[in-house]
Amino acid sequence: MWVIVVYDISDDEKRNKIARELQRLGLSRIQRSAFVGDIDSQRFKDLVRIMGKLVTGKDDILHIIPLGLRDWERRVVINGDSVRREAVSLL
Amino acid sequence: MWVIVVYDISDDEKRNKIARELQRLGLSRIQRSAFVGDIDSQRFKDLVRIMGKLVTGKDDILHIIPLGLRDWERRVVINGDSVRREAVSLL
């Protein structure tokens, strides 16, 4: 299953630890605090369990959202002054 | 169409302006730099156009990713020490 993981974590050390764990689980970084990847149901359980241990700050929040591969492929990425459209069919 | 918008913007003023525009377009904030919402194709075009004007910093990046409503409903939110699962069926 494809998922996107996005988070706001105030503690630098914990935020870096979360990024390392997400990489270890096979997800790819798409922004400073956002990862995407294809994981099986065992890895998904691991993901929820590990993140549950790391996201402990009062204002910390992390979302794990299932993502259809078709939806991911239709993303629009805006980077500096270049707009790369993978979503022409949407417009 | 449901979309999630996530961004890394270094300039405070631009980042705040992006958040205001996303709210104006009818999206809801789920984290400091992540919004979700249901928009029609005209609003989607506006979204891409407006964000293209605001995301101009060298290291700035913004993703607009279509999201199935079913997928959004199955999200897992980890908030401080509480894990709210809307995704039991996934596990």
From TrEMBL, chains A, B:
SUPFAM superfamilies: TTP0101/SSO1404-like
EC number: 3.1.-.-
Pfam families: CRISPR_Cas2
Top-level lineage group: Archaea
Cofactor(s) this protein requires: Mg(2+)
UniProt keyword annotations, A-Z: Antiviral defense, Endonuclease, Hydrolase, Magnesium, Metal-binding, Nuclease
GO BP of this protein: defense response to virus; maintenance of CRISPR repeat elements
Binding sites annotated in the UniProt record for Mg(2+): 8
Entry-linked InterPro entries: CRISPR_associated_Cas2, Virulence_VapD/CRISPR_Cas2
Assembly: Homodimer, forms a heterotetramer with a Cas1 homodimer.
Protein name, UniProt field: CRISPR-associated endoribonuclease Cas2
Gene it is expressed from: cas2
